[in-house]
Design brief:
Blueprint lengths: L1 H28 L1 E5 L14 E5 L25 E5 L7 E8 L4 E5 L2 E4 L2 E2 L23 E2 L4 E5 L9 H4 L2 E2 L3 E10 L5 E2 L2
């Protein structure tokens, strides 16, 4: 009888270990949950929203190494991205990708200009962008370095973003924000 009890206990332990390992693999390579702490992405994301982030789209990192899996596609303008904050690597930030490597970005009259032309993506016409910080002054044209990105918060009046601290290195990308899953009245795809 004690042999049977041991085997049941062992099955439970093995099941728990397998479930834990599977959850860690999914979190590391596929999808991860995040909570929005500030209003820098209002009205797209509100404080307290819980979101899921697609980690494999830009190439998930292998934990505890510098290795990265192949990307499904490169980041594109308008993506809402999660990344390691360049000024404090212990923090993750979320912003909208505005300019790609090699592009020139300028904030003029509340609008975004890429390579001297207004940004074509509709999302950029719904926000007034303020000239602030060392990388966002009026009349200042910024060239995004190779393997870097320029990002802005959708709530331009209250966002600490590339205008203040510069660029997001490609190696800092964690993934693309996919969906708000909590609270229930805000469940939706993130655009």
């Amino acid at each position: 009888m004690s042999l049977k009890k041991k085997s049941v206990l062992r099955e439970w332990i093995e099941s728990i270990i397998v479930a834990f390992l599977l959850a860690m693999v999914v979190r590391a390579f596929v999808i991860q949950a995040f909570k929005i702490p500030t209003g820098s992405m209002r009205m797209t994301l509100l404080e307290g929203d819980l979101i899921l982030v697609n980690k494999f789209i830009y190439g998930a990192r292998v934990p505890f190494t510098k290795l990265q899996l192949p990307a499904l596609r490169p980041p594109k303008r308008g993506d809402v991205i999660v990344f390691i904050y360049p000024e404090d690597r212990k923090k993750d930030f979320i912003k909208r990708l505005v300019a790609l490597p090699g592009e020139t970005v300028e904030i003029k009259g509340g609008s975004i200009y890429i390579n001297n032309k207004p940004a074509q993506e509709p999302i950029f016409n719904q926000v007034y962008y303020y000239n602030r910080g060392d990388f966002g002054a009026e009349g200042q044209k910024i060239v995004v370095p190779k393997d870097n990105y320029f990002v802005l918060g959708d709530n331009s009046a209250s966002s600490r973003d590339s205008r203040y601290w510069g660029f997001v290195p490609k190696d800092n990308l964690l993934g693309e924000a996919l969906i708000i899953y909590w609270p229930p009245n805000r469940i939706r795809l993130i655009k």
